[in-house]
Amino acid sequence: MRRRILVVDDERRLADTLAQVLRLGGFETLSAHDGGTALKISAEFLPDLVITDVSMPVMDGIELATELGVSLPDCKVLLFSGQANAVEVVQCSAMEKRLPLLSKPVHPKDLMKVVESMIGPSQADDCENLS
């Protein structure tokens, strides 16, 4: 059985691209473009990992992580942010909740390393090389 990952970012192209990269790495993936939709999808998809942007309208990534901690306590959350000036603030919030944080942009190989360190390999036979 493949490990499941939900990618959440209000930048649709980025969320969909990261989901595709992870799919090529052998993971089962879906993408969402806001926190509310991510919660609804998570209830059925039951992801092993949610990768979420920190800065999103209505529900930010830290709020999403908090909600997921209640509804899916076994689901891990990886935050990522492209706002250099907010990284220190985000790091403090993420550390309080013990959430890992990646900076955008992230190279696919680096993303795969972090994902595999959090939830293990994809467990799929059809993985393609992400060179």
Describe the structure.
This protein has a 5-stranded parallel β-sheet with strand order 2-1-3-4-5, with helices on both faces. The two termini are 24 Å apart. It is 44% helix and 18% strand. Helix 2 runs parallel beside helix 3 (61-71). It is α/β, with parallel strands linked by helices and 131 residues long.
Secondary-structure blueprint:
Blueprint lengths: L3 E5 L3 H13 L3 E5 L2 H11 L3 E5 L7 H11 L4 E6 L5 H10 L4 E3 L4 H12 L12
Parallel strand pairs: 1-2, 1-3, 3-4, 4-5
Helix pairs in contact: 2-3
Overall geometry comes to: globular
Which class of secondary structure composition applies to the elements? Answer: alpha/beta
Q: Strands across the major sheet, in which order?
A: 2-1-3-4-5
Secondary-structure element order, N to C = EHEHEHEHEH
Largest sheet: 5 strands, parallel
Residue runs with pLDDT of under 50 for 5 or more positions: none
- According to DSSP, the number of beta strands is 5
Q: Which radius of gyration do the C-alpha atoms yield?
A: 14 Å
Question: Could you tell me the mean pLDDT?
Answer: 85
Note the beta-strand portion.
Answer: 15-25%
Number of helices: 5
Oligomer: single chain
Give me some keywords for this one.
131 residues, alpha/beta, five-stranded parallel sheet, 5 helices, 5 strands
Question: In summary, what is this structure?
Answer:
By secondary structure, the chain is an alpha/beta fold. It has helices at 12-24, 35-45, 61-71, 87-96, 108-119, and strands at residues 4-8, 28-32, 49-53, 76-81, 101-103.
